[in-house]
Specification:
By secondary structure, the protein is an alpha/beta fold. The protein has helices at residues 23-41, 44-47, 52-66, 73-87, 93-109, 117-124, 155-158, 165-175, 189-199, 227-233, and strands at residues 11-14, 129-134, 151-154, 182-186, 202-206, 221-223. Helix content is 47%, strand content 11%.
Length: 235
């Protein structure tokens, strides 16, 4: 990426899950609390086979079955809890709804930001328009990031997921910039980097663990910490 191309940047967007916050951690935490609630309502013998990992597998199976029909993550999660109750032969749709609401409450309220998230956003917010482009369903207002974002684009609101071009172009249209004026940061080569590259935006791969890139997707920049974004933007 030539240095003069960076002069075009007017907008910086971020992925959410595993970029600004640890989704895996909060998901496991929220499911553990949900499983505790389930066991309060259902005899232990029926729930003995259930673990957090088993519930994750059930959700992933349901999501795969619904692929192409919905990107509404709340509905997918509700159907996963319904499937969970079916598997333990406990017919109680109302309980599935209770579990879903409990999960979502903790899923949003118990999010822990990565330590570099706030310092990065503080350094950039007065210099660029800042946005969130996510395949997840986290509202920044619920995650301790109130007031940081000029726009929020969630896949379930657009109807497509990254790396689909429409989700990035919708962000550009909302904030009033050309794709080449957008720099997008995310942890996924497949979703974030490929999606940004596909529309001509500047892609930044957040590779916290220093994983080897064995794909054909090449980011414009690779970083280990969000604090490095400020150095790129200052070039």
């Amino acid at each position: 990426m030539a240095a003069h191309d960076l002069d075009k940047i007017k907008v910086i967007s971020f992925d959410g899950d595993m970029t600004l916050w640890d989704f895996e951690k909060v998901m496991h935490h929220s499911l553990a609390l949900t499983l505790q609630e389930l066991r309060r309502h259902v005899p232990d013998r029926a729930t003995a086979q259930l673990t957090v990992d088993k519930m994750i597998d059930i959700r992933n199976t349901v999501a795969a079955e619904l692929k192409g029909t919905t990107v509404d993550l709340e509905q997918i999660r509700l159907k996963a809890f319904q499937r969970t109750l079916e598997l333990i032969h406990w017919d109680d749709p109302a309980l599935a709804a209770v579990l879903n609401q409990l999960y979502l409450k903790h899923r949003f309220e118990d999010v822990e930001l990565y330590p570099d998230a706030i310092p990065c956003l503080d350094a950039l917010k007065d210099l660029f328009a800042i946005g969130l482009i996510s395949n997840g369903n986290s509202d920044p207002e619920q995650c301790g990031l109130s007031g940081y974002f000029d726009f929020v684009i969630l896949s379930q609101g657009i109807g497509v997921k990254k790396p689909h071009a429409e989700i990035f172009l919708s962000a550009c249209a909302q904030v009033g910039c050309e794709p080449e004026q957008l720099m997008h940061i995310g942890d996924s080569l497949e979703s974030d980097v490929a999606g940004a590259n596909g529309v001509g935006a500047i892609s930044v791969w957040l590779n916290r663990q220093g994983k080897r890139n064995t794909s054909d997707t090449v980011p414009a920049f690779e970083i280990r910490s969000l604090l490095e974004v400020t150095k790129i933007a200052e070039r």
